[in-house]
Amino acid sequence: MKIYSISVVLAPPSGASTILSSATDLAQFSFYQRGSVSEFMTFMSKTVAERTPQGQRSSVQENNYVAHVYNRGGAEQLAGVIITDQEYPVRPAFSLITKLLDEFSTKVPQSQFNNPSSISFPDINTYIQKYQDPSQADTIMRVQQELDETKIVLHKTIESVLQRGEKLDNLVDRSTALSAQSKMFYKTAKKVCGNATSAFFRI
C-alpha cells in the first residue's frame, strides 16, 4: 500500500485551482522521471479538485492508482487530494484528508491562501510518511461514522470527471503547469502504453 502524493488545494467554484501545500513520495520512480511524474501528480490533483463539486468526496481510479478527493468548499474553498495505489483503503484515505484539511485550516491563516509561496505547512511531510501505513489512521477514525453516512463517488477513469467535450490530451497541451519536457514525457508514455489517461502512471 502506498501514498504517492498528498495536496491541499484552493478550489474556488469557478476558475482554476491552486496547490497551497503538497508532498510526494516518488522513490519508486527513477531519478530522471521524478520531475515529470511530480508535475503530473500536481496536474491530476488540480484537475480532480476543480471538477469535484463542493461538499463531495470522490475517488478517481486509473488502473492501479486512485486519486481520493474531498472538496470541502465553504468559506475557505479548500480541497484535499491524496493519490494512492489501488490497495490503499478508501476510509482511512478520506479520514486522513479530513484531518489534513482541519489541521491546515487551524495552522495557516486564510489571508495567506492568495500567496501560496508564503505558506509554511511542514506537517504535510509528516502526513505522507506516517500514513503510508493505513493502520496509523486508526487514531483519526473518529470520523468513520460521518464517512459511513457519506456517499463517495467512484470514477473509473479521469476522463469521467472531465466536463463534456473535454479531452485530457487538450488539457495537457494547454497546461502552463507542465513543462515542455513533461508534455513530451506524457506523449512518449502514451505511445508506449496506448492509454492517454494513465500513461504517466505506468512507468
UniProtKB/TrEMBL annotation:
It comes from the Eukaryota. Keywords: Cell membrane, Coiled coil, Lipoprotein, Membrane, Methylation, Palmitate, Prenylation. Residues 9-128 form the Longin domain. Pfam families: Longin, Synaptobrevin. InterPro entries: Longin-like_dom_sf (IPR011012), Longin_dom (IPR010908), R-SNARE_YKT6 (IPR045848), Synaptobrevin-like (IPR001388), V_SNARE_CC (IPR042855). Residues 139-199 form the V-SNARE coiled-coil homology domain. It is a lipid-anchor. It is found in: Cell membrane. Belongs to the synaptobrevin family. This is Synaptobrevin homolog YKT6.
